[in-house]
Design goal:
Blueprint (H helix, E strand, L loop, with lengths): L2 E5 L2 E3 L5 E8 L8 E6 L5 E7 L5 E3 L7 E6 L4 E6 L8 E7 L2 E2 L3 E5 L2
Parallel strand pairs: 2-11
Antiparallel strand pairs: 1-3, 3-8, 4-5, 4-9, 5-6, 7-8, 9-10, 9-11
Length: about 110
């Protein structure tokens, strides 16, 4: 069955960096677009970053210039490198593909 397992969240100070990872299994990873979606406390879902099967990337305005999505098809893994983090980046970050969701990883940006 399809599984998406996120890791790498945690507490970081404003201006810091984190690298999230999503390990995928149960499908032909290289064939599918992958997405990072976040949900801040008390808010709705926000699509943060997309990477196509061909490696093209798209970012939300809030992430552009600070976040980088990448994929490693040999490891069936997608990453989200987050730099210059702000308190408003605090959220649960989910990996999403083909109508499947991971359980999420919490990122807290606070001094």
């Amino acid at each position: 069955q399809v599984q998406l397992v996120e890791s790498g969240g945690g507490l970081v100070r404003p201006g810091g960096s984190l690298r999230l990872s999503c390990a995928a299994s149960g499908f032909i990873f290289s064939n599918f677009w992958m997405f990072w979606v976040r949900q801040a406390p008390g808010k709705g879902l926000e699509l943060v970053a997309t990477i196509t099967s061909g490696g093209e990337t798209v970012y939300a305005g809030s992430a552009k210039g600070r976040f980088t999505i990448s994929r490693d098809n040999s490891q069936n893994t997608v990453h989200l490198q987050m730099n210059s983090l702000k308190p408003e980046d605090t959220a649960v970050y989910y990996c999403y593909a083909m109508n499947y969701w991971g359980k999420g990883t919490l990122v807290t940006v606070s001094s």
